[in-house]
Amino acid sequence: MKKNLFAALLCTLLLTGCQVGNVTFNYIESTDTAPPEPVVTEAPSPESPAKETTEPEVNPDTNESEQLYLELYEHFNQGETEFTFNIPQDDDSLFLLTQRMKKEHPELFWLSYSYSAELYREYAEVSFACYEDINPDEIPAMRKQFDQAAAEVMAQVPQNATDYEKILFIHDWIIDHTVYDIEGRNSTQLGGIYATAYGAIVNGKAVCSGYARAFQYFMNQFGIQSNVISGTADGGSHSWNYVLLDGEYYWVDVTWDDPVSKDGSSQNLFHRYMLVPDEVLLRNHTPNDLHEINPFIPTCSGTKYNYFRMNNCYFESYNLKTVMETLNAHAKEDSIEIMFQNQQDYEQAYNDLFEEKQIYKMGVEELNSSRWFFHDDDTCTIMIKHAEF
Questions:
Q1: What is the 3-state secondary structure (H, E, C) of the chain?
Q2: How confident is the model over 101-114, as pLDDT tens digits?
């Protein structure tokens, strides 16, 4: 699911805005000439299909289920769809192992939820179905493409990067190289390549579950604990991620940091949901509490590595002078993002900067030129960005 986004125009003498889903785009024009027609961006509507307090731990050397899991993974990892599997006469255990496999291994992008099994006393003959848009004979070649594309991305990450820098790099890379698949969102088939890590990493086109699975895949490669959470956001089905960073859990929603235009193409790179705690994400996201869907839902209380705190753009209290100094410090950058701890301070900052036009009194040429500004009531964030026509 994509966050609903709309755009509007703001000139020095006139403010017009259209807000749906608590996110509004506006335009700041430095001259008195007539503004261009409003550009309205539509976000895709819902698509895609979490309560324990600790991540479950299993010793693979002593747990029979883990041995079966590893055996099953070896078959899948080789792209096999039909094979004999050593499993007790219990179809439920095969179903649970397959469900877990899909959750933990996004590189098995071809694997759907459908399979058939002939159960015998000590083994089973199983046949797993691919998504409708994947030919089983093409799995080896597609897996090779996937591995090569992912390796090229990994090679771009600096060798001495911190875990925070790795997470930020992948967050931004996925947004910069992936467009939201509106056709996939509207598809009547149950799942498809658009809902996989392959869709995002290789094809550069995916729905929210594809964004989330691509993010999870790279976190797995870095050894950073992460998984996909399914639930609802603003009332529609949605998928996003959690990560464990320096002993604390955080939320990451790559999809909602990637607004789209009518044709699905990306317009901007946001960080509203880059390493945020429960207090921010759960304002409009609700994990599905069914254990079968989300076996583990962390309590995300981390704040230290929040993107805005790391960039000195987080305000626990409001002071116009301090906000202006921060904006000045980032004025030469393509965009500036700031977040406020509470709604009252956010609304006061919005009023002072744009309603009272304090932003024009900053004396900074870069901020007095034509700019878009974006504000999100849910996350109490404001972005100011150079206008592009």
A1: CCCCCEECCEECCEECCCCECCEEEEEEECCCCCCCCCCCCCCCCCCCCCCCCCCCCCCCCCCHHHHHHHHHHHHHHCCCCEEEECCCCCHHHHHHHHHHHHHHCCCCCCEEEEEEEEECCCCEEEEEEECCCCCHHHHHHHHHHHHHHHHHHHHCCCCCCCHHHHHHHHHHHHHHHCEECHHHHHCCCCCCHHHCHHHHHHHCEECHHHHHHHHHHHHHHHCCCEEEEEEEECCEEEEEEEEEECCEEEEECCHHHCCECCCCCECCCCCCCEEECHHHHCCCEEECCCCCCCCCCCCCCCCCCCHHHHCCCEECCCCHHHHHHHHHHCCCCCEEEEEECCHHHHHHHHHHHHHCCHHHHCCCHHHHCCEEEEEECCCCEEEEEECCC
A2: 989 999 999 998 78
